Input
Amino acid sequence: MRNFSFQKLFGAVLTLTAISFCGTAAAQDTQVLVNTGNTDGKLGALSRRPSLNKVETETADDFDLKQTTVLTGATITGLISPATPLANVANVEVELYHRFPEDSIADRTPQVPTRQNSPADVEIDSATRDGAARTLTFSTTLLNPNLSVPNSVSKGINKKPLSTTGGDLAVTGEEVQIAITFAKPIVLPAGHYFFRPEVLVNGADFFYLSAPKPIIAPGIAIAGDLQAWIRNTDLAPDWLRIGGDIVGGNPAPAFNMTFSLSGVNLVTAGVPGRADCHDVTVDGLADQFGSASAAASALGFPSVKAMQNAFREFCGS
Output
């Protein structure tokens, strides 16, 4: 979601395919790098693409990367209305965000209690992937035909001082997992980010399910784990903490969301913006995978040229 001009598993196991190559390259597997585990069944937060008479609503949760990483896919788990055909899940869009105040106007007065440790005002342009634009593909699997959670956030997303509503009561639906493959893998340097998926469901909505905080097995602990945030078109570019600002209480809860990210960590990569970024990265890929064609296959790129373009974009060259 962009409101101003600005420069800049689980219920089901994610299936990962080992890719083999010839030559000097060893077989490389994409791995589950981020995993918040199975849903805790406490809350569903609306995650919705804009459509006729429906306001865009974004739910984001954080993750941490210790080194340059190529993300190849993701999973998200949520509820759709009872008896909704899985084919009605019509589109998925993924955006990634830096942490505030990066990519943000930090000196304006926010409409929310705090922006500390929130997602930025605007997304990382180069990391957006959209099924409608064919930059990702997805499939939907039914996990449970009837699941209820005692609380939700969908309508009560308000500017301060009316932020705390307690939530929007229980929701019941079909628990589904959406497996996402990035047709154009996402290259990110080490850092702390927010993952924001949105889902378009014809005739229904997608309620993104919460996950345990702190993360427990089969999840993987996230260094400096923060919490989930939400906003709609009216609140943007600000965000509200789902637990601390909307549900409230003393102490207020904090939520994770149920998602995973898969990909490959790069052993050696250049630093974006430096003159030698591209050369260092190319040399590192050759050392890790044996050849450019092997690297492109292992990292999920459709061609060597597509991989080269992605790393030029990563390096800023």
About this structure: The CA atoms of residues 1 and 253 lie 26 Å apart. The radius of gyration is 19 Å. Residues 277-289 form the longest helix (13 residues). Residues 31-265 form one domain.
